[in-house]
Amino acid sequence: MDYQRIDAGGIGCLTRMDGTDWQWGSDYTSGDLYEAEELFRDGHPIRKSRLVFLRWPEPRLYEPIRAKDGQYFGTPCFWAGSVYILLVDFPQKEIRIYRCAADMESAEVHVCLPLDAVPDCYNLMLHAAPLTLTRQGHENTFQVVWPEQCSFPIENTESFDSREGDRLVFSKWYEDPDYREEVVVRKYPTGEVLERADGTLMTMPDGQKWLFV
Question: What is the Cα–Cα distance from 78 to 129, expressed in whole angstroms?
Answer without folding.
Answer: 10
